[in-house]
Amino acid sequence: MIIRVFRACLKAGMRSAYERLCCEVSLPTIRAQQGCLATQIGTPRAGQPEDFVVVSLWSDVESLRAFAGEQWQQAIIVPGEADLLEQVRVEHYDETYRSLVQLWRAQAGVVKRREVTAMAAPLSDAQWQAVRRVLPAQQGRGRPRADDRRTLDGILYVLRNGCRWQDIPTAYGDPVTCWRRFVRWESDGTWEHIWRTLLAVMDPAARLAWALAFMDSKHVPTKQRRTLGKRLSAAVAP
């Protein structure tokens, strides 16, 4: 068995926000992975409220690699997490807790750059091929609608950045078109199919990177935004 110890030094006053992020996003996803035997948030040590420890127990390195990818020895960071951190450290031990298998550490700036990279990429070709199958066909013989892939990338840009619709870069087309398409897809149930399809083709690390964008209701400016957090809890597990 492998014991994975994640240690974070938090910025002052950020423990409550960080613990919420772990309990609502990170830990449910980790616990759903095959090969994860247990997880536990450590009790804060006296006089060190900014220290935050999460311990997870894995059946073997293969299970951990299946979850975290080839860079399994590094931390998986949820968007928004880097802003709460000063630095992170990840340790891996065998089941005796005596032999150090791997050690990885990074300052917040390194973690932040990884987060920005993860959230900047548009849909991959494989993701688009999966999603296009669940999009509704155009109705009628009128003018062809704006390109679906570009429009969807524009919607995802808003979700992952939390910006206003009018701030969508011109590369994604007309902001009004993106907003209208999102509202329509949300109201007719298409968005739920898109969301579940995207999760199905993402690896666990990417799934975590996107989770917060869909959970945080301020990123989804529609009347139905309150339901997305509940849907995430069920949908984020593979």
Instruction: List segments where confidence is low: pLDDT < 50 over at least 5 consecutive residues.
Output: 216-238
- Number of helix segments? 9
State the order of secondary-structure elements, H for helix, E for strand: EHEEHEEHHHHHHH
Please report the first level of CATH classification, the CATH class of the largest domain. Alpha Beta
Sheet with most strands: 5 strands, antiparallel
Strand content: 15-25%
Structural class of the secondary elements?
A: alpha+beta
CATH architecture classification of the largest domain: 2-Layer Sandwich
- Enumerate the strands of the largest sheet in spatial order, edge to edge or round the barrel: 2-3-1-4-5
Mean pLDDT across all residues, rounded?
Answer: 75
Instruction: State the total count of DSSP E strands.
Output: 5
CATH topology of the largest domain: Alpha-Beta Plaits
Instruction: Compute the number of structural domains.
Output: 2
Question: Topology, please?
Answer:
Blueprint: E1 2-10, H1 15-31, E2 36-41, E3 51-58, H2 61-68, E4 85-94, E5 100-107, H3 108-120, H4 125-132, H5 148-161, H6 175-188, H7 190-201, H8 204-215, H9 226-235
Antiparallel strand pairs: 1-3, 1-4, 2-3, 4-5
Helix pairs in contact: 1-8, 4-7, 5-6
Quick summary:
The protein is an alpha+beta fold and 238 residues long. 45% of the residues lie in helices and 17% in strands. It is elongated and about 65 Å long.
Q: Could you explain how this protein is built, in words?
A:
This protein is of the alpha+beta class and 238 residues long. The protein folds into two domains: 2-118, Alpha-Beta Plaits; 121-235, no CATH class. Helices cover 45% and strands 17% of the residues. The protein has nine helices and five strands, in the order βαββαββααααααα. The chain has a five-stranded antiparallel beta sheet with strand order 2-3-1-4-5. α5 packs across α6. The longest helix is centred in the N-terminal third of the chain and has 17 residues, at 15-31. The chain is elongated and about 65 Å long. The two termini are 22 Å apart. The relative contact order is 0.14. Residues 216-238 have low confidence and may be disordered.
